[in-house]
Amino acid sequence: MTATRKLAGLAIFLLAVFVLVPALIAATGRKDLYYTLTSVALLSIASAGVWLTFYIGRINMGQGAFALMGAYVAAVLVTRYGMSFWWTLPAAGLFCALASLLIGLPILRLRGVYFAMVSLVLTEVTRLLALAVPITEGAKGITNIPLPGAISLFGITLVPDFSTMENPRIAFYYLAVTLMVIAFAAMYRLVNSRIGHICMSLQQNEELASSIGVNIVHLRLIAFAISSFLGGVSGAAFAAVTQSVYPSSFTVTDSVNFMLNCFLGGLGYVFGPMLGTLTLYFGWNLLFQTGEFQLLIYSSVMILLMLVLPNGLLSLGEGRRKG
């Protein structure tokens, strides 16, 4: 019954994001929502990477750095070297994964609180590098990034050229939700695999895991690399959506928000970052109506939610299932 319920839930979710949401947007004429939901989908992918580092017992406060790296890698490859956008997605992810291995090798040996503090400065360091390195064009950033081209196979067009479309925002929406579905499906499979169960042991007791032969440093590096890969891919997609990237495209605030998305949705649930991102994004925009009290109300609500629902919003459904 549980497996049947999960399949039914997956089918409903896929139907909602690929059919019902576009139908509702078309019916209401609110085409601006395509950009909003595209942003939510891409931010949730980056947040999923942060959630994975939580899963191994580490607080990652530097995901904005890898999103910014991914955005610049994609922008440089497309504008300077004429690479297709579709190849820049994996290229940006792999670049960020390799960078995370170099960064993570020393700092992942630190205890959790020290890793969190060091990761906090990564975004600001990356921003300063983007200002200083000539290939990133400094403060003026990289603009006029071409829209993604067509994908053809045996003469059959699978994905049309975005620049020829009347409303490319629809295409970006489908691209973002497709990447989101793939990312979370991969995360779910990873968590429920043998290596995922071993990673869970790191969260519970690293000393005990080490005593039975688990190479905790290697597992931390793998998790951090996957996390950074997701950040890089989301950043690359953002650069294509906005057709620009600047040193301020992702800041320390974004890194903190990626972490808050995980807390809000639920650290004990793979899909927590998705719900957390959706709630936080729309909640913040809704509070914009309150003017100067926006930040005060936002902070108060976040503190209240963490006190009342320490396991996140998804724990509400868990309570009903147990009941």
Q: Indicate the radius of gyration in whole angstroms.
A: 20 Å
Mean pLDDT: 88
Please count the beta strands (DSSP E, at least 2 residues each).
4
Order of helices and strands: HHHHHHEEEHHHHEHHHH
**So how many helices?**
14
Structural notes for this entry:
This protein has 323 residues and is mainly α. The chain has a domain at 31-149 and 159-251. The chain is built from 14 helices and 4 strands. The strands form 2 sheets. It has a two-stranded antiparallel ribbon. Strand 2 (151-153) and strand 3 (156-159) form a beta hairpin. It is globular and about 60 Å long.
Topology:
Elements lengths: L1 H27 L3 H24 L7 H17 L5 H23 L4 H9 L1 H11 L9 E2 L7 E3 L2 E4 L8 H24 L2 H11 L1 H6 L4 H27 L1 E2 L6 H14 L6 H16 L6 H15 L6 H8 L1
Antiparallel strand pairs: 1-4, 2-3
Helix pairs in contact: 1-7, 2-7, 2-10, 2-11, 2-12, 3-4, 3-6, 3-10, 4-10, 11-12
List keywords for this structure.
323 residues; mainly alpha; single chain; two-stranded antiparallel sheet
Structure described in brief:
The protein has helices at residues 2-28, 32-55, 63-79, 85-107, 112-120, 122-132, 168-191, 194-204, 206-211, 216-242, 252-265, 272-287, 294-308, 315-322, and strands at 142-143, 151-153, 156-159, 244-245. The protein is mostly helical. The longest helix has 27 residues, at 2-28.
